[in-house]
Amino acid sequence: MTQTGPNALQPLTIDARGLNCPLPVLRLNKALKALEPGTEVILLATDPAALKDVPVFCAAHGLQVTQVSNREFFRFTIRKIA
User: Is 58 noted as a catalytic residue in this protein?
Assistant: First the structure.
């Protein structure tokens, strides 16, 4: 799935706030299967387990991940490499 038009440069956002483990990672996995290499995905999560689960999932699947937290939720930016 390649984005075209005005949102072509916009990363896909997965809002998994309010969902508990393993649902944020399962939604991320499903979305990544349909995306081209180089695409960025933003994952929003509130489950504290995501702080461990998302980086471990990304490392196991060769994905680049950065994580930013605030008081309300966690925001992960993930880039599909291959």
Answer: no
Residue-level pLDDT at 9: 67
- Buried-exposed string 47-63: b where 16+ CB fall within 10 A, e elsewhere: beebeebbbebbeeeeb
Q: Which position among 3, 21, 35, 75 bears the catalytic label? A: 21
Quote the pTM value: 0.85
Write the pLDDT tens digit of every residue in 24-78.
999 999 999 999 999 999 999 999 999 999 999 999 999 999 988 888 999 999 9
Total domains in the chain come to 1
User: Tokens representing 36?
Assistant: 């081209």
In a domain, 43, yes or no: yes
H-helix or E-strand spanning residue 23? helix 23-33
Here the CATH number for the domain that contains residue 51 is 3.30.110.40
